[in-house]
Amino acid sequence: MTDTPRRTALDALHRELGATMTDFAGWDMPLRYGSERDEHVAVRTRAGLFDLSHMGEITVTGPQAAALLDFALVGNIGSVATGRARYTMICREDGGILDDLIVYRLADTEYMVVANASNAQTVLDALTGRAAGFDAEVRDDRDAYALLAVQGPESPGILKSLTDADLDGLKYYAGLPGTVAGVPALIARTGYTGEDGFELFVAPGDAEKLWKALTEAGADAGLVPCGLSCRDTLRLEAGMPLYGHELTTATTPFDAGLGRVVKFEKEGDFVGRAALQAAAERAEAQPPRKLVGLIAEGRRVPRAGFAVVAGGETVGEVTSGAPSPTLGKPIAIAYVDAAHAAPGTPGVGVDIRGSHEPYEVVALPFYKRQR
Questions:
Q1: 100 close to 87: Cβ distance less than 8 angstroms
Q2: Which domain, by its residues, includes 187?
Q3: What's the pTM?
Q4: Do the domain assignments include residue 105?
Q5: How many domains does the chain have?
Q6: For residue 295, which of 255, 347, 339, 349 has the smallest C-alpha distance?
Q7: Can you tell me whether residue 77 is helix, strand or coil?
Q8: Structure confidence by residue, pLDDT tens digits, 175-220
Q9: Which residues neighbour 308 within 8 Å (Cβ) at sequence distance 6 or greater?
Q10: Which of 107, 128, 136, 262 would you label with 63, given CA atoms 20 to 30 Å apart?
């Protein structure tokens, strides 16, 4: 017996728009509406509208909510100001990454943890288990929210036409409650595309009204509906890691080049501290494989799991790869031995079905927007 995929509040609307649907982490999600390249270019140059309601929201409340999150996660969550957000991770005792997260501080003793769809239950279970002894409540709020994202250079103008919230004063990685098109929302200046943009957390019953209002408000600005396919190429160009590819339970934040998210200076113990301290020392003494960018000289596209080669030896592994609409060439993110990780290292290639295709090693990200 197979489980029926979950559907978001916007499911009927996606089908009406002719979306190609796909099963993603147990959800039926839009992969693309038309050309994924056109959707990608729209986000880079104008604006795109995404349904991200598959993401997992977990609310943590109570007098010791901050203390619980400081113990359960690797970041210093107690230092996050109300109305701000922080990128962080939840690790196992051995330092392996369970998920990367965004934590929003909604009020003095209220936080919203946003987990990846594929890991939401794992994160919920871990937080619930780690809450023992803390005066705090962990609540599964996955059904309480739909999540829409407007991303791209035109997104502030589009959203301004629908809200009187102070968007100009809303910094990157901040969130404030407001009303958008008459719908109560948490308006967050966050995203996963490398562009300016907003994520709007609303009640599922309001999702369709908001989607239609955004579509109408963005028509003149060239806003288009976007699926998960272009979201992946956008984050790839922006050098943003994806759980299950760049991040796994077999990698620590230091392996992924994201050791900066681990805050050893915070007070008290946290899950994985000893293992992560050892990982930090190892990384300093002998750099592990580094996460680098690879740009193809030819046209063949590398995929996750393909070997990175140099001088007839395997020196790394591709974690993500796709054609880059912005660069006009195939690109990849890969873990590569430190000796071959410097930008411009000669003789590096990817083994694509027995053929060694030449690639240029570059620093991440491939694309950075002009501010």
A1: yes
A2: 6-53+145-237
A3: 0.97
A4: no
A5: 2
A6: 349
A7: helix
A8: 999 999 999 999 999 999 999 999 999 999 999 999 999 999 999 9
A9: 294, 314, 315, 316, 317, 318, 334, 336, 340, 348, 349, 350, 351, 359
A10: 262
